[in-house]
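hiii so um. not sure if this is the right channel but i have a protein structure encoded as tokens and i wanna go backwards to a sequence. like what aa goes where. can anyone help
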């Protein structure tokens, strides 16, 4: 599916987006990057999961709307998710930032 150079490019671009969003929010709010990096990573991971999955809640909702409007029953699709490079990179960033955040704030626990 992807050759080695494309995979590395997707890793780098995804990390730049994650670091850029984290840095942008921390610059705007005048806080530390460790405060927002986990939540940014989690949000992006969920968005990637939602956009790359097939047959989820939104598709079923759309099928029901079409069926109610037209009276034609649509074929039901099974939920399917195949993780890709973007998802694994974002998930890794999220896990690493969670560990870093827990280590940074260990005195509060």
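sure thing!! here u go:
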């Amino acid at each position: 599916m992807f050759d080695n150079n494309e995979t590395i490019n997707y890793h780098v671009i995804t990390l730049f987006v994650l670091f850029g969003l984290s840095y942008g929010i921390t610059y705007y709010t005048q806080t530390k990057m460790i405060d927002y990096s986990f939540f940014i990573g989690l949000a992006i991971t969920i968005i990637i999961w939602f956009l790359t999955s097939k047959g989820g809640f939104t598709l079923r909702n759309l099928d029901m709307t079409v069926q109610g409007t037209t009276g034609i029953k649509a074929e039901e699709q099974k939920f399917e998710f195949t993780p890709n490079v973007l998802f694994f990179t974002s998930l890794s960033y999220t896990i690493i930032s969670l560990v870093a955040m827990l280590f940074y704030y260990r005195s509060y626990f």
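oh and The two ends are 44 Å apart (CA to CA).
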